[in-house]
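User: Hi! I'm working on a homework problem where we have to compare a predicted structure to a textbook description. Could you give me the structure for the chain below?
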Amino acid sequence: MAETTKIQWTDHTFNPWWGCSRVSPACRFCYADRDAQRYGHQLWRRHGERRMLSDNNWRQPVRWNRQAERDGKPAKVFCASMADVFEDHPQLDEPRKRLWDLIEATPWLRWQLLTKRPENVAGMAPWGDSWPDHVWLGASVETQRFAEQRIPELLKSRAKTLFLSCEPLLEELDLSRWLLPWNRAVLHSNAFPDHILGPYGDDLTQIDCDSCDFDSADGIAWIISGGESGPKSRVTEVAWVRSLVEQCRSARVAPFVKQLGAAWAKDQFVGGKSIFGHGDRKGGDWEHWPADLRVREFPQEVALHG
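Assistant: Happy to help. Predicted structure tokens:
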């Protein structure tokens, strides 16, 4: 289903199909599975069916692209909120080829491809070392274990804009070593200081970049962080979010704090009333956040061309 969206870090949501399978702790209380079941669909089985969406749905990005071109302002499209583009499933080979053609035909859209399977990207994406500039590639990272697994795979891609989604954030993360390549790209620019300190006081400019485990043109440009939503939400500590923002600042990476989560919202009281009772069920109203976490920035590409 293609639609405008309430997700703060994008403009539109496009789903070429529905369905996926769980691969890590972030999937435990999957909102997409929950939403699909409301419509009577059982789509979150490893070898189960995937629901293909209509041709009219597939025409929506073409309309968005025309409008963005008329406006002279690129529009961001999150693909796919109800699936994983890089899931290895036999039903997806042909629709995935159709998706690549659609992406290439809509250069005024900033396609945000977010996956929990970055190890599949090289074998599924058709662009090799020449990715279209308007495609952003991201990996979901909820714990340090999955940071260790997924970020090196993400950094093998030659996509121009790479990002991370740390949502739901389930523990404190140290991502500083993977943010170093972005530093390397700007170290000799007069716009940045001679010494860039990491979140724990280490001088990142003194690290031997040639020994770092990355193979990316630019490095990670954007980090989204957020707590979990839904009735069984696990806790995201404010300190974990703050640490990610600080790591972004140290590495000149754009931070985007989406929400602090339903578990956090339930514990907050303003004027004797819980903000959860005021409709802020995801902890997304930043008027109630600590001031230093009211941060919603985008990668440099949007700033230059948006």
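For your comparison, note the following. Residues 1 and 54 are 8 Å apart (CA to CA). The radius of gyration is 19 Å. Good luck with the assignment!
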